[in-house]
Design a protein that fits this description.
With 266 residues, the chain is α/β, with parallel strands linked by helices. 53% of the residues lie in helices and 9% in strands. It has helices spanning 2-15, 27-55, 61-68, 73-80, 90-116, 120-149, 152-161, 178-184, 214-221, and strands spanning 167-171, 189-191, 211-212, 227-231, 249-253, 258-261. Strands 3-2-1-4-6-5 form a 6-stranded mixed β-sheet. It starts with a helix and ends in a 5-residue tail after the last strand.
Amino acid sequence: MVVAALFDQASDREALGRPEDGAGRSAGYRALLVWTRISLGGGMLYCLGMAFVWWGGWLTPAAIIRGLSFWSTNYRIILDHGLPLPPVIPGRFGGVLLVGGLLWVAGFGVAAWRLAHGRVQAGMAAVGSVGLGLCLLAGAVLRDVGPHHSLKPLADHVNAVHRPGDMLIHDRGMEKGGGLLFYTQRPVLILNGRRGDLEFGSTLPEAEGRFIDTPRFHEIWDGETRAFLVTDLPPSQSAISRRSSAAPILVAATGTRWLYANRAVH
């Protein structure tokens, strides 16, 4: 919002004529020019640091996942529970990070040059192109790591063996498990998932019976009904390890989740 306000001030100034050097420039225009140059300098320092880390061999898969953990809780879960790391390629991610830095430098370099010559609209376009380019690079990262987190493989197994009367249970919050609902199109019980984004919704009348706790889970798991559990926790830490008489049967697994059944699957 601050940057937009500065651009608006500079644009108003440009509408009255090109800003002149020195005292003729408005305070907003000067602040915008300083901000752009600082951004350019920061981008240069980032590129140098990124190149040093990459070429120094410190850009390991674990380091990449640690960095991604600031972006998504999925990666914090992976690190906290020692789950298998996504098949990230350090060279590819290093290239994406360095290209993003170079794009930033190029865009803000052009913006600073155009602003120095009083071309505010051209400077705005240069900064906007940086944002667009970074979004495209973020999309490339998502395409790389997305399959590792996808629930489609497990949902396909459920769809292949699910019978009327079977129960499908998702361990913990559904914030990262919406794909299970999408791909199966079946009702899902949520185990210990009230805390989080669904906390308020879980208190509504229509949610009654959809959210279950560990004792209720064991009643279902040890009962006569065949049940499936999708969990992102290792077996030793998931609900199936706690006082359950029905030995879990591993049906399928991905890099970050397991699908278990309490009865034989044919």
